[in-house]
Every structure is written in structure tokens, then in C-alpha cells.
Specification:
The complex is a heterodimer of chains A (380) and B (125).
Chain A lengths: L3 E8 L11 H16 L8 E4 L7 H9 L5 E3 L7 H14 L5 E8 L1 H4 L1 H4 L17 H15 L3 H15 L13 H6 L2 E3 L2 E2 L9 E9 H5 L6 E10 L15 H12 L8 E4 L5 H9 L8 H5 L17 H5 L6 H13 L12 E8 L4 E8 L6
Parallel strand pairs in A: 2-3, 2-4, 9-10
Antiparallel strand pairs in A: 1-7, 1-8, 4-7, 5-6, 8-11, 10-11
Helix pairs in contact in A: 1-2
Chain B lengths: L7 E2 L10 H10 L4 E5 L4 E3 L8 E5 L3 E10 L7 E8 L4 E4 L14 E5 L6 E4 L2
Antiparallel strand pairs in B: 1-4, 2-3, 2-4, 5-6, 5-8, 6-7, 8-9
The chains are: A alpha/beta (380), B mainly beta (125).
């Protein structure tokens, strides 16, 4: 396959956006910023990739708004992992000669319009009678199971939220930057046991975009290219009641595929951006991606190990827990990884970061997509 | 009218007279918790679906709590939500009633409770 790179990235307005803003406004705003970041003009885009719970035909909206008539269009919707999947799909499309400049975009106004209106849950006859609070209850069931099988504690889960907040304090764009302690997390109101409100991601507006093109073309862009070294996709179910094993996600497969494609392993990764919809998710992904053994995720994060200054740089923007979570957060993982690899992350910059792992989660632990990104120096 | 089990589930190759969900509900209205059996793989299937070689069967109603949570909606009484592993080898979402929602524990033996709109469970005696 053709080697490809990310030539530009951007966030849209984040947090609480102006009254009347539409998800397409945010998608387009981020797209224009990402194209400016790359130094590539909008008319050069010939491949569109987009998804939004508010826009079932997201690439059509994006093309119309930006007045781009693409020759390739991919609105793959696998929840929050969609945009990591789009990276892989963009590489495939570019390799096949179906497009040259791929624009991946996302926008959500879920805070403005309300979560119920922004993310319509499909009605399932076998789950509806029990009124699960989705998605949180699905993740709560997985957390309960992880605690039962491996002795994981609520304190260990709280470490994830506390570390995210400490990273967010270093990120001027983060939505929540005030101090947060383990006691604060444990004392917060319960939502769906064992998860309390501080174990849950934010509910914000926001969007983002990334421009992907051949490595050769990205080298001519305004900023240093960030290469896609490898990617992998996997999904195992749609409903939590159909997940084969609640403590083992399809990240086992997506991660293996991504590492194999990159010819790298966990010890090569300098920065990890793991989808943190709830405090349990980074624990599961650390285990499933091979950063620690199954069941050891809780111990792995103890003692501030994933907080700034810790041994492992994880969710360096503050994550979905403290920076921004517009509903399908995956695109913002890519934005942060690229900034870290370009050395543009300011106070939260991880020194000498050359390889980043981005892991997107979609649905209720359903879809798992992993991408490994690297600087020019990592290309062999 | 549902009266027999071991009726092959059709629908993939002919017009369905009854949807899988309607048949499941009809079984339940007779007090029976139905699931399907895939003879090709020798495994239980849930939720019921259209497919080749899927036989309808009736569960004995005994199972074990696989995972549990407490739903805490604003202005509502806390309620249980659980995934139950039935002894026949299938898993379903349900609720354990008859004890406090927080008292439901993983590994607890439960039994389906007759009646009601949908199958719920109670601790096995």
C-alpha cells in the first residue's frame, strides 16, 4: 500500500459553542482549519470521510457546505472509533488511486441540543424492557465484571479520571481544568454502579478534522508530516448483551493488526491516546493492546503512573474525561497525537515523542480501531 | 399460536409469517422463555434471529448473574440491570428483582419469574 501521512489537523470550536451552531458548521470549521494547517486548498480535496450521530449522510453535508464534489466518499459509522477507521480507509483509497487528498471530519452539538436529541439510541426489543442507561450502563457492567474477575478497585478507576484532569490542567482548550482528587471521584454521585459521574466523559460540543495524503505529498505541506505506520480494525458486537467477554475487547485484534502493519510493539510507543469514554476503557485498552497483562490494568495506572510526570504519557490532552467529549471523540485523539509528534503540545509536550498510538472505541465497547503514527524519523 | 418447540426458524428463504421478536413474545405470553439452538455449531443463540438451522427451544429458566449494575436515574428509585447466563448456554439482558438492586452479585444463582411484560429474574430459592 502507498505510504500516507497526516498533513494537517485541527479542532473546531469546543466545549459550549454559540447558539444556533450546527454540527456541519463545526465539521467545516475544523476542516478549513486543518486544510490551512496543511497548506492545502479546499478544491484539492477529492476524498471525503465523515461521521456524526446528528448527520446520517455526513459526507454529503460536508461536501455541500464546503462546495467540494469528491470522487471518493466514505461515511463509515462505527461510533467514536469511526475516524481511526477512516484513517485506514483513506490509506486504502489513496493506494487504490481513488483519491489523492482525503479530508476526515466530525462535528457535534450534543451539549447545545441535548444528548438525547444528538444521539438517538436504536430500540432493541430484547434490551428495551430493562431500560438500560446507554451507553453508561454497558460500561458499568464491564467495570463490574473487571472488578469481580481481577480485583480492580474504584480507586484504581478514579486514578484514570484524576490523571486526565491533571493533563487537562496543562491544556488551555480543556473543558474542565480545576483540580480533581481520588476522593472527589469516589464521592461523586453514582450514575450506574460502579461508575459515578466523575468516571464518565464530559458532554460537550465539538469537532475536528484531519487531512491525509501520500507521504510524498505530505512532505510538501506546510507542516511536518506524521506518517500512518499501521492501523487495524475489529468489532465484536453491537449490544453489550452480545459481547462475548466483557473484560476482553476487540482491541486485542485491532492492536495486533496495527502493530504488525507498523512492525512495532508496545515498547516502541512514546505517547498513547486511548479513548476514555469512561474510566474503565483505558484500563481495558492498556491490557488488550499489550501494555500490561490482562487484569493488571488497575495496578498499571496506580500511583499517578499515567499522570503528567508519570512513566506513561496517556491521554495527554485531558481526554474525553476532562478535555472534550462531543459524543464520538475519536477524531480528537488523532489531533492530539499529531500535535505531540510535531512537538506542538506546549506545556503538556512529551519530550522526544516519535511514535504515538491512537485507539478509538465505538458503540458499547463494540468497535475497536487502532492506528500507529510516527514522525519522519520513524520511517525506514 | 405457539404450541411446539423444535420448529425450524425460517425466514431466510421464505416470507416470514411471524417475526423472531413476535414469536419470542408469544412464547413468553405462555410463560416460556424461548431461545434458539444452532445445530450446526451445537450452541445456543440469543437474541432470536432469522437464520438457517436455528431451532426454537424453551429454557428451564435457571441461570447465573454474569454482570450487574444499579441504574440511578434522577427522580426514580434505583433499579437493577443485569446480564444473565442461562444454564442452556445463552446470555440475555434482564433485571433481578425481589432483593435490593445493590445486593445483586455476580455469580448469584437466579431463576426467571413467571408473568410480566418481559422476563425478569429473582434469586433462586
Amino acid at each position: 500500500m502507498t505510504r500516507v501521512a497526516i498533513a494537517g489537523v485541527a479542532e473546531s470550536d469546543l466545549g459550549a459553542v454559540a447558539e444556533g451552531t450546527t454540527p456541519v458548521d463545526l465539521m467545516a470549521q475544523a476542516s478549513l482549519r486543518a486544510l490551512a494547517d496543511a497548506g492545502i486548498a479546499a478544491p484539492e480535496v477529492d476524498g471525503l470521510f465523515a461521521a456524526s450521530t446528528q448527520l446520517p449522510m455526513a459526507t454529503l453535508n460536508l461536501g455541500e457546505y464546503l462546495r467540494i464534489a469528491p470522487r471518493y466518499s466514505d461515511a463509515t459509522q462505527v461510533g467514536g472509533s469511526s475516524f481511526v477507521a477512516h484513517l485506514q480507509h483513506a490509506r486504502a483509497a489513496i493506494s487504490a488511486g481513488l483519491c489523492e487528498v482525503a479530508l476526515i471530519a466530525y462535528g457535534s452539538t450534543q451539549r447545545l441540543v441535548g444528548r438525547a436529541g444528538a444521539s438517538v439510541q436504536e430500540i432493541d426489543p430484547y434490551e428495551k424492557p430493562y431500560a438500560p442507561m446507554l451507553p453508561v450502563s454497558a460500561y458499568a457492567l464491564a467495570a463490574a465484571r473487571h472488578m469481580h474477575e481481577f480485583g480492580t478497585t474504584r480507586e484504581q478507576l478514579a486514578e484514570v479520571a484524576v490523571a486526565a484532569r491533571a493533563w487537562a490542567a496543562l491544556n488551555p482548550k480543556a473543558f474542565k481544568r480545576d483540580p480533581l482528587s481520588i476522593a472527589d471521584v469516589l464521592g461523586a454521585p453514582m450514575v450506574s454502579d460502579p461508575l459515578g459521574v466523575r468516571d464518565c466523559c464530559l458532554v460537550t460540543d465539538g469537532g475536528g478534522a484531519a487531512v491525509v495524503t501520500s507521504l510524498e505529498r505530505a512532505r510538501a505541506a506546510r507542516t511536518a508530516p506524521v506518517a500512518l505506520l499501521g492501523a487495524g480494525e475489529a468489532h465484536s458486537h453491537r449490544h453489550i448483551s452480545s459481547m462475548p467477554d466483557l473484560t476482553r475487547t476487540a482491541a486485542v485484534d485491532s492492536g495486533r493488526r496495527a502493530f504488525e502493519a507498523a512492525g512495532l510493539g508496545p515498547s516502541d510507543v512514546d505517547v498513547l491516546e486511548l479513548y476514555d469514554a469512561f474510566t474503565i476503557t483505558p484500563l481495558l485498552f492498556l491490557e488488550d493492546l499489550g501494555f500490561c497483562a490482562k487484569g493488571e490494568g488497575g495496578a498499571f495506572v496506580e500511583g499517578g503512573r499515567i499522570a503528567p510526570g508519570g512513566e506513561v504519557a496517556l491521554n495527554t490532552n485531558g481526554g474525553g474525561l476532562s478535555y472534550c467529549h462531543p459524543g464520538m471523540y475519536g477524531l480528537l485523539l488523532i489531533v492530539e497525537a499529531v500535535r505531540q509528534l510535531r512537538g506542538e503540545a506546549g506545556e503538556r509536550q512529551v519530550a522526544g515523542a516519535e511514535v504515538a498510538l491512537v485507539h478509538g472505541n465505538g458503540g458499547v465497547l463494540s468497535s475497536q480501531c487502532t492506528a500507529i503514527l510516527g514522525t519522519e524519523a520513524t520511517l525506514r | 399460536m405457539v404450541s411446539k418447540t423444535n420448529i425450524p426458524s425460517r425466514g431466510y428463504d421464505c416470507h416470514m409469517d411471524e417475526s423472531p421478536a413476535a414469536r419470542f413474545a408469544a412464547f413468553w405470553n405462555e410463560g416460556r422463555l424461548a431461545y434458539q439452538w444452532d445445530s450446526a455449531t451445537g450452541s445456543a443463540v440469543f437474541y432470536p434471529r432469522v437464520g438457517e438451522g436455528l431451532e426454537w427451544r424453551v429454557s428451564g429458566g435457571a441461570g447465573t448473574v454474569y454482570a450487574t449494575t444499579v441504574l440511578r436515574r434522577r427522580d426514580e428509585e434505583p433499579a437493577n440491570l443485569a446480564l444473565i447466563d442461562l444454564d442452556e448456554g445463552f446470555r440475555m439482558m434482564s433485571r433481578v428483582e425481589g432483593i435490593a438492586p445493590e445486593a445483586v452479585a455476580i455469580g448469584m444463582r437466579v431463576r426467571v419469574r413467571a408473568g410480566g411484560e418481559a422476563p425478569v429474574f429473582e434469586p433462586a430459592a
